[in-house]
Specification:
The chain is mostly helical. The chain has one domain. The chain contains seven helices and no strands. Helix 5 runs antiparallel to helix 6. The longest helix has about 35 residues. The chain starts with 7 loop residues before the first helix and ends with a helix. About 15% of the residues are buried.
Length: about 150
Amino acid sequence: MIMWENVTKLVREQERLKAEEAVKSDQRLNNYLINGKLSKALKLSLKMNKPRLTKKTLHTLQKRGELEHALQRLSIDERNILFQSLVQWNSYANQSSIVQEILKYLITDTLANGQAISADQCAGIIAYTEKHYQRLDKLKTRLHVVDLLLDTM
């Protein structure tokens, strides 16, 4: 004999509580952003998996000169989440500057603390980093040629 238990009310209550918690988290995140508590906003946006808000917060921190301080406060789990976003963002040339700055800090700090960086993590970054470096090198060469041409005039 098979007995079924009706768990509809329980499932609906769990979904309601989950939705309520999401609204509270969104409100807390917005309050952090409005009140200029960007380090807390960064941590919460990473926890909530909000890459667009994470990127916006990072850009604001960079403009304020507070980026390194905020990165120092991230846990290892938060850094790993951020690293995964950096792999995606690094594929776009217009975001490569901030990505490279964050990577420089994260890699330097990780190695300084005796931690290892996995080959999988590095593989996602290396290809586009090399591409950005080559692009900048070509730009530097072009600027040098322009300087030479201007000097001869």
